[in-house]
């Protein structure tokens, strides 16, 4: 009796061992199958994501057009640009052309700042501010070239100097004021090295403009008319060299001394407010090129209508060149600087406003001095 019970237990034990041994390869094989299925699912979703992120995808193109040209309410002013061009060729009424061109450039400037902000997600704040200042100054560059070809030297001088003052005072002041109101419970900070470098470059630009003017007004030049032009060209070369060094300093030392200040805080209070990437990197670059080209076209019609608008609106050309024209030309910087200040990104705000003034004073303004005699 005991032997039969013992044999029965041994048989049951051997049966369970054999059954477990059989289950082990089954379990391992099933887990391998599941892993393969998961890997297939992952590979499939990655392919779908890559296809959906293509800039040539019809859905992405439609969504990109909607986000840039339709979504914002300020885009209601976009039709005024083509209307200004139509009035230019049909009626020739410079007052209306000037007014409608101002309205047409305003939404383009705001969208230009938006596209630059989207590109700043991929480039970082320092390069993002540099790009914003560069694309924002495209209008001033086109106006300068167009006016120089038309021999409108005073308009170029007044618009560029007004643009420098507008960036340093109006744009930066509005950005700091708006950012201080929105973030009234905290102290907004920015990188000290950025402000020091930009201040030094602006001082150098003032000296480069002041020396030829002093030489001209004191009548102390050795060769009448030639000494001032030679000194202006020499200053232009020095300013361009200094600006190239400034760009090298910005791009090379972005992660070191000149790195942007950590404005997120220790608790990451702004992480929830961070905007999503609505545009890919290539979409942002393409939209920057399109918007800059359209702003430049409208700027040409704007300059062409200045003289006629001055007569029809009873405004002096100096007032239009110093006040109205810089406000329109700096609309991109104005919108972008306020936008970044509201989001507590003062490094980009300073890079946009002061960087734009630095570019104009050291690159645009002195480049004009190379072509024409400014005094």
Apparent shape: globular
Rg of Cα set: 31 Å
One letter per element, helices H and strands E, the order comes to HHHHHHHHHHHHHH
Q: Which structural category do the helix and sheet elements fall into?
A: mainly alpha
Percent of residues in beta strands? under 5%
Oligomerization: single chain
- Overall number of structural domains: 2
Largest sheet: none
Measured as a percent range, the helix fraction is over 70%
Number of strands: 0
Distance between the termini: 126 Å
Number of helices: 14
* pLDDT < 50 stretches: 18-27, 36-53, 255-273
Q: Mean pLDDT, as a whole number?
A: 72
Give an overview of the whole structure.
78% of the residues lie in helices and 0% in strands. By secondary structure, it is mainly α. It folds into two domains: 52 residues; 260 residues, no CATH class. The protein is globular. About 13% of the residues have low confidence. Vacuolar cation/proton exchanger (CAX). Translocates Ca(2+) and other metal ions into vacuoles using the proton gradient formed by H(+)-ATPase and H(+)-pyrophosphatase. This is Vacuolar cation/proton exchanger. InterPro entries: CaH_exchang, CAX-like, NaCa_Exmemb, NCX_ion-bd_dom_sf. Belongs to the Ca(2+):cation antiporter (CaCA) (TC 2.A.19) family. Cation/proton exchanger (CAX) subfamily.
Topology record:
Layout lengths: L1 H51 L5 H13 L9 H11 L3 H30 L1 H12 L1 H12 L3 H30 L9 H26 L8 H27 L28 H24 L1 H7 L4 H13 L1 H12 L3 H26 L4
């Amino acid at each position: 009796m005991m032997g039969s019970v013992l044999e029965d237990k041994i048989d049951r034990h051997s049966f369970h061992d054999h059954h477990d041994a059989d289950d082990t390869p089954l379990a391992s094989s099933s887990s391998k199958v599941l892993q393969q299925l998961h890997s297939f699912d992952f590979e499939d979703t990655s392919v779908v994501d890559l296809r959906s992120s293509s800039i040539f995808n019809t859905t992405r193109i439609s969504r990109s057009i909607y986000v840039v040209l339709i979504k914002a309410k300020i885009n209601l002013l976009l039709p005024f640009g083509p209307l200004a061009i139509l009035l230019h060729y049909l009626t020739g009424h410079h007052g209306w052309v000037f007014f409608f061109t101002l309205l047409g450039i305003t939404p383009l400037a705001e969208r230009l700042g938006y596209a630059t902000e989207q590109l700043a997600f991929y480039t970082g704040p320092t390069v993002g501010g540099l790009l914003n200042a560069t694309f924002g100054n495209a209008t001033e560059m086109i106006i300068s070239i167009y006016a120089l070809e038309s021999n409108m030297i005073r308009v170029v001088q007044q618009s560029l100097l007004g643009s420098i003052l507008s960036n340093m005072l109006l744009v930066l002041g509005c950005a700091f004021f708006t950012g201080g109101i929105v973030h009234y419970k905290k102290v907004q900070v920015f990188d000290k090295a950025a402000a020091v470098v930009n201040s030094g470059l602006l001082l150098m630009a003032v000296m480069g403009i002041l020396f030829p003017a002093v030489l001209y007004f004191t009548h102390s030049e050795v060769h009448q008319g030639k000494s001032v032009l030679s000194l202006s060209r020499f200053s232009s070369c020095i300013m361009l060299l200094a600006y190239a060094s400034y760009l090298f300093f910005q791009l090379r030392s972005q992660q070191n001394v000149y790195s942007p200040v950590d404005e997120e805080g220790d608790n990451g209070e702004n992480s929830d407010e961070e905007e999503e990437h609505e545009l890919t990197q290539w979409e942002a670059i393409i939209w920057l090129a399109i918007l800059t080209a359209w702003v430049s076209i409208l700027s040409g019609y704007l300059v062409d209508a200045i003289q006629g608008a001055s007569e029809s609106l009873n405004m002096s050309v100096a007032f239009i060149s110093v006040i109205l024209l810089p406000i329109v030309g700096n609309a991109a910087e104005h919108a972008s600087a306020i936008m970044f200040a509201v989001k507590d990104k003062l490094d980009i705000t300073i890079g946009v406003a002061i960087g734009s003034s630095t570019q104009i004073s050291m690159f645009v303004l002195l480049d004009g001095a190379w072509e024409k005699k400014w005094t």
